[in-house]
Amino acid sequence: MNNNQSNSFLAVPSGTLKILNLPPSATDKNTHYPWLSLIIPTYNEAANIEKIINLLSQMLDEYIPDKYELIVVDDNSPDGTWKIAQSLMVQYPQLRVMRRQNERGLSSAVIRGWQIAKGSILGVIDADLQHPPHILLQLLHSIEENSDLAIASRHVEGGGVSSWSFARRFLSRGAQLLGLIILPKVLGRVSDPMSGYFMVRRECIAGATMNPVGYKILLEVIGRGKVGKISEVGYVFSERKEGESKVTWKQYVEYIHHLLRLRLSTGNLERFTQKFPIGRFIRFGLVGLSGVFVDMALLYLLSDPSTLALPLTRSKIIAGEIAIFNNFFWNDAWTFADVMIQQKQGGQRLKRFLKFNIICLAGLGLNVLILNIVFNLIIHNRYTANLIAIAVATMWNFWVNLKLSWRVTQVK
């Protein structure tokens, strides 16, 4: 890139959303190709665009001078974001700008940017400063350490959200849980599958046809690419200071649509076979067996006509909750002892317990539902029906707790 570059907009690619390999000339030492191509998708970010370009340029000029390019892809913002970005091109020679007038959508904007990018490392960062720019250097370091994909995560050590409401936290975690159920082989590989701040080696996604929905491009990268080693870097998601949030209910609906479409796809998704953690499952099952004794004994004491004779459903809820307390402490000390050792603090243990309890309460609801169905429609024996219900709920509890409550990535 040189100081005499044109101030004209980049041509917008058309057709299939597919990233190509770099030409052989890209490896020629006499040909200037950037190493990193960082896409900044924008829509109505006039208040933030100059600041984010300045921050990124200063940082990357120091870390990888002349080895990067910044590509703003703007969806014809009514506030003129594209015009401001264009005016900055003289001051920042690594900056390029694409103005899209016939397409919309964050995910497709990122892919269109990658299609004209010249770097072997492709990245994306929001323009609204909710993604702290300094984390970019840690992502670059992870790529330099041979990661195929480096993700900025809110759910690993050092990560979090600054001031989200309970409702937004609940929706975010609920979306993650739903993803784990629908696409466990894809979303189970990372702690923050909804992150929009990451870098990936071009070779991992070159040739794959992308078909994103909504905002979550990372799902496409993991699901359709050939991604091996993944690294995660913690960051605190900040509230925007300028502009308006673009998170709406529509994005959650699109996310579910995206999950279902990926789940129904064939090919690359099938490669993500994960070795089932049989050792953990056996320990989890043995702990669960102790919970069965607690559950059965209390169910008898509470519901049997010769004792308290409480209604079956009420008795089951009480017995199940006490069994959950029993199972958590045994699982924390034995089944997931390696994770517990890394997270000894009381606050972390309390978080694990709350997650475990919520997940198991959902499992308890499943348990109660199956118990009543089996008891009333199939086997008119409360104890046999209860054992069947427990078996189904155990598989639910193990898999979801493995992914959310006790994770080597230290999910918060």
Write the layout of secondary structure elements.
Layout: E1 36-42, H1 49-63, E2 68-74, H2 81-87, E3 95-99, H3 106-116, E4 121-124, H4 135-144, E5 149-153, E6 160-161, H5 166-182, H6 184-187, E7 198-201, H7 202-205, H8 217-224, E8 230-234, E9 236-237, H9 249-264, H10 278-303, H11 312-335, H12 337-342, H13 346-377, H14 382-404
Parallel strand pairs: 1-2, 1-4, 2-3, 5-8, 6-9
Antiparallel strand pairs: 4-7, 5-7
Helix pairs in contact: 5-9, 10-11, 10-14, 11-13, 13-14
Structure description:
With 412 residues, this protein is of the alpha/beta class. It is built from 14 helices and nine strands. The strands form two sheets. The protein has a seven-stranded mixed beta sheet with strand order 3-2-1-4-7-5-8. It has a two-stranded parallel ribbon with strand order 6-9. Strand 1 (36-42), helix 1 (49-63) and strand 2 form a beta-alpha-beta unit. Helix 5 (166-182) runs parallel beside helix 9 (249-264) and helix 10 (278-303) crosses helix 14. The longest helix is centred in the C-terminal third of the chain and has 32 residues, at 346-377. The chain starts with 35 loop residues before the first strand and ends in an 8-residue tail after the last helix.
Q: Considering DSSP H and I runs of 4 or more, what fraction of the residues is helical?
A: 40-55%
The sequence of SSEs as H and E is: EHEHEHEHEEHHEHHEEHHHHHH
| Biggest sheet details | 7 strands, mixed
Q: What is the overall pLDDT average? A: 82
Major β-sheet strand ordering: 3-2-1-4-7-5-8
Shape: elongated
